[in-house]
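Figure 3 (text version): structure tokens given as input.
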């Protein structure tokens, strides 16, 4: 069944304004500091209380029971897209979130600075959570030197804290690749490999990632504590029908840290 066709058939034009309020990450435990209440029980929520009187409420399993959703599938599922049918790498989300426009065939990776010991073993995956200003300085060093690998342009942009994004823009590229990230301390940086072993485009992309490491790591060798970096979610942007095309609604999305605002 093609859900896009089904939704198009079922969609009715409306002037109604709808709000989907998602409270992510509310799972927590009661603490003594909160009078043995959970953070949500202790929170002041006048706005949520008012909304809930005339709203539908519930909990959602984005993918399937027992499967922890990553950022890509989690966000897609929230807005009614099957995360199995539409798979988006974390690098694509990171690039779009930083305001980069990805062209067809571009491959993006989410990256973060890390600390390596003299043997190349990861001792801190986040380099002590360096400040954003330090991340921007390090990204400027990389971007100044590693502008191109063969026929592919390399775009580097700093994010918050230890995070940044790397975009490879050229011909004949494709993801996804496995992560160049061991996901734990005490191991070396693994080599990024094509998920589809038969894809020549993914193989070319894997070589580019290896080439980027070869050029970029020496530039960080004398930096402290961020003398290395990890890359994950290495993928290209798939074609996804827009929310307006699918539901005939004009969408807007706002993300905030609710602990700083009355709920």
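Below: residues designed for each position.
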């Amino acid at each position: 069944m093609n859900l896009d066709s089904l939704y198009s058939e079922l969609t009715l034009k409306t002037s109604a304004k709808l709000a989907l309020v998602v409270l992510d990450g509310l799972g927590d435990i009661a603490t003594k500091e909160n009078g043995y209440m959970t953070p949500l029980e202790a929170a002041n929520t006048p706005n949520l209380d008012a909304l809930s009187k005339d709203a539908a409420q519930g909990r959602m399993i984005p993918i399937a029971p027992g499967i922890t959703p990553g950022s890509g599938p989690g966000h897609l599922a929230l807005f009614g897209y099957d995360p199995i049918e539409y798979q988006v790498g974390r690098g694509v989300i990171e690039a779009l979130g930083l305001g980069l426009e990805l062209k067809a065939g571009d491959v993006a990776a989410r990256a973060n600075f890390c600390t390596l010991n003299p043997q190349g073993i990861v001792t801190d995956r986040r380099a002590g959570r360096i400040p954003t200003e330090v991340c921007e300085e390090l990204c400027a060093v990389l971007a100044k030197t590693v502008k191109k690998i063969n026929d592919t342009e390399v775009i580097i942009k700093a994010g918050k804290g230890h995070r940044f994004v790397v975009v490879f823009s050229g011909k004949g590229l494709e993801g996804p690749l496995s992560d160049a990230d061991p996901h734990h301390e005490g191991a070396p940086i693994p080599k990024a490999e094509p998920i589809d072993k038969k894809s020549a485009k993914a193989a070319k992309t894997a070589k580019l990632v290896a080439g980027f490491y070869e050029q970029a790591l020496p530039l960080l060798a004398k930096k402290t504590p961020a003398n290395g970096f990890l890359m994950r979610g290495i993928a290209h942007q798939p074609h996804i029908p827009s929310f307006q095309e699918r539901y005939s609604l004009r969408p807007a999305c706002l993300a905030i840290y609710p602990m700083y605002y009355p709920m």
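Confidence is low (pLDDT under 50) at residues 259-263.
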